Every structure is written in C-alpha cells, then in structure tokens.
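Both lines are retained for reference:
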Amino acid sequence: MKVKELISVLSLEDPEMRVVVNGYESGFDEPNNILLVQIVKNTNSVHKSWEGEWDEVYDKENNKQTETALLIPRKS
C-alpha cells in the first residue's frame, strides 16, 4: 500500500477513530510513532508463512533495489 492509498482509505473514516496494530502475541496496541525504513522484496525461494513479504535493508549501498517505506511499529 502506498501513502496516497492509505490517505484515500483513511479520509473516508471518522478522524477521531483510534488506530491500533497487532500486539506482540495477542491483543492490540496504539502506535506511538512512525518510522521510515529501507526495504527490499523478500525473494527467499523457501518463503515461510511467518515471514513478511518485505525485508529491512541496513546497507543500502550494497542493494540498489531498496525503497523507503513508512512503518507504524508495535509498542509491544
């Protein structure tokens, strides 16, 4: 999802509605910050169901296919 798509979806909702993300093992948390991260598509040929479709990249110089993404992290 791109930011403009998220804005479009959110613009249809009550601006006073709470935003939550999944808790670490159960329940929900309210996000308390937004981060920008460098990501690359997970191309692992043996994709496991618990792995995300994107991986964080720490060394952008060695991977030219990275993109910057907005992350709303969990608190727990």
